[in-house]
Amino acid sequence: MRGNLPDRWLRGLSLLVVSAGLGLSGCSTTPGQTGLGNSLTESSSQSNSVLMQQIRGELDDGEFGNAALQLQLLHERVLTPQEQVEFMLLSAQMHLGSNEPEIAGEYLNQLTQRMNYATPEQELRASLLKARWYESNGEYLAAARERDFLSGALNPEQREQNHEQIWQDLMAMPEVELLEWAEKTPATQFGDWLRLAAISRNSRLTLDEHLAAVTTWREQNPAHPAAIQLPGGLALLADLAANRPHSVALMLPLSGPLEKTGGAIRDGFMAAYYESLDKGYAIPQVHLYDSQKYSDIDIAYAQAQLDGAQWVIGPINKMQVQALQQRETLPLPTLALNYGDRSEAETLPANLYQFGLAAEDEAVQIAEKAWTDGLRRALVLVPQGNWGERIYAAFEQRWLELGGEIGEQRFYPNRQDYNPEIKALLNVDDSQKRYQTMRRLLRQSTEFEPRRRQDVDWVFMVALPQQARQIKPTLAFNFAGDLPVYATSHVYSGEPNPTKDRDLNGVQFCDVPWLLESSELYRTVEKVMPNGQGGYARLYAMGVDAFRLLPRLKQLEVFPHSQMFGSTGALALDHERRIHRRTECTQFRSGRPQRLARR
Question: Would the keyword Membrane be found if you checked this record's keyword annotation (predicted)?
């Protein structure tokens, strides 16, 4: 997709030409036309109708290239006002399907000027396309409100799909914004949607608390569409609570090189365990095993079975997870706390689930956020080594899928001075070389101000705090202070440090809610730990979510679009039973993370 900028420019130009053409050709027959003229007009109208029907079929089948060619033929014909409306609807649908929301938006804007010619069916399609356009731009509140407004005009099948999409839109919004907007729309159907969504987006609720809150909401709003048919797998909550495991094996490294990692996850898990116990909710019996003391993991499984465990949570070691996923089945259903590498020829055991803090998920989320923020061409700075390469691969795949471009990428070494890599990335060296060449040719002194490349609009950075604190000022030193910088969560130590992090002001990153939305459980854990959670805070959050996630795996598996909102982010399960996370986005201001204002 690297060469698509000229294509988009040409399509935009085509849009202007089409608009002008429609303004001239949108005349129907005049009262003076008779006989053959009427016959030709009727024949043309029938031909247009057939062509439009073909285009709708191609768009429904995802044949956007064929649809584009057919639309080009259509716009050269004489169109009635109602056919002009249809042409714009089809064009907007095509560009949305082709991941070109800017052009789709132009057609939708033109539609507003011709809606008095639209049929009720076309008005409905226009509203649905507008909702999709909002979604493509990350304007989820506007999309949900549009869908709620039109829901009454839909047939039962469409209404069910629309209600589920309303839910997905609201689930993309932070809890605090849902509550803020719910207060602005009291005693309305949409306000009740917002209140139910805020309940599900509350990452602090246990399964029992979530079930109780949904039950209360449903009793208060019995006629609401979401009460009649609970969205997002909420109808399963009662069943999940009644059938949760009553005995689990927690298999973690509590000695050896991963002792601190295993200890942090264990402490987070047990903090969630005791929180539920103190509130009087049902809890499983927990059997704790040090995975380092078992030379063969089968021995650990056998011991867990003898102790009556129904599930295993762990291991953490990547090689052990890799070995587990190569088996046909496991002795006990297992929630591994890491991810094995995947081979397309490999068939995963049906009772293995994998959950971890994968940086690749963050790279995908950053790509999507930058795209919805209107950015299109990136520079990339990632560290050398396998870890940096994996993050870059995930980012590159998603960014190119969206239609973005990568101006250049640099894999930087761990050093004190990042200026050489950044100068080369920004082409500042080339600017200086051109000046030196010009000076030699002219043989006289000339005024010169170095410049960076102008063909990019943002920077994707993967760096630890000590690296980022040097890289960000170096970007500014090389005339790139105006480029937005987006980063993975590794840019933040997890502990506020305004003095050191002032150099990161303006950097946007996405991190776990555990760090960004202080909860009572977080404060309890922070207080109990001798020196606080420190750099292991995200692993404490992972332990909390391992406890809360286990009984909800069935919900995530049965309802592919459902999510659990936990301490590490919004958790969803893919077809390979791997958990993926979406975290909360924030920005450094005055050296501290602050929540981003929504557009």
Answer: yes
